[in-house]
Amino acid sequence: MSNSSSKGSALVTGASTGIGAVYADRLARRGYDLVLVARDEVRLNALAERLRAETDVTVEVVKADLTDKADLLKVEQRLATDTTITALVNNAGVAGSGDFVGSDPDAFEKMIQLNVVAVTRLASAAARNFAPRNAGTIINLASVVGLAPEMGMPVYGATKAYVIYLTQALRAQLANSAIRLQAVLPGATRTEIWERSGTDINAIDPNILMDVDDMVDAALAGFDQGELVTIPSLPDAADWDAAQAARAKLYPNLSRNRPADRFSKA
Ligand SMILES: NC(=O)c1ccc[n+]([C@@H]2O[C@H](COP(=O)([O-])OP(=O)(O)OC[C@H]3O[C@@H](n4cnc5c(N)ncnc54)[C@H](OP(=O)(O)O)[C@@H]3O)[C@@H](O)[C@H]2O)c1
Fold it and tell me: Closest residue (by CA) to atom 10 of ligand 1?
């Protein structure tokens, strides 16, 4: 065990593999102590041991299934009350086949439990912890699918649209707060999520598939640049700004005291 780091601790969900494991590695190298959360304790411990050997930070492992209410409340309680925690990486998530008609609705419910309910409760706990100190960081892993209903993943995409909205709306609500927020929208990234959701990763066009180390490094660069929403593969941030401006153009007419003329009877 080393001394506590001056940066405090980062709690990373879904840290046993994939994007979460790379965040754990990068945040340790940035000097954050770590609280690593996932179900697979063996893998969490292996990562923790490596990071303890390679860095100076302390690493704690918390085995939790975030779709299990008791486990979720345990992590939530820790996030809400441990003032050494200064960052949350809200990363644990599952994808699915995308087939709305043929999929088991219980699988959708479980996906919503993890991708929406757990993400919301953990962000809320972190915000309650950080607000009195006017400091802290919440990074939420969304997906580009959340911007693109045409990709044909109705439930997964909706959970990720939720994460984008949550992050943006929270920024608006915490406009005067120094709490740092970021939604990360990876495109296809080389992790186990594909195999776990029954998709052969080898069937994916390699031109659209990013290495997980590159994805997380770009996302952290976006964070360092102060981006609220980061799309690691997007060359020109002005394209995102233009999309937001197009949405804002609807504002003056989103709520009025009478229907638009185009709906009146001729
Ligand atoms: N890879 C992509 O192409 C891609 C693209 C866009 C967005 N994303 C998003 O990025 C995030 C990470 O994805 P990834 O690609 O790294 O996925 P991954 O390789 O499948 O890893 C998912 C992580 O979440 C954990 N997890 C899964 N179910 C859990 C549960 N019930 N309770 C606690 N932890 C759980 C897993 O650990 P255990 O199994 O040990 O619990 C694992 O550590 C997700 O939110 C995903 O939607 C990924």
Answer: 141
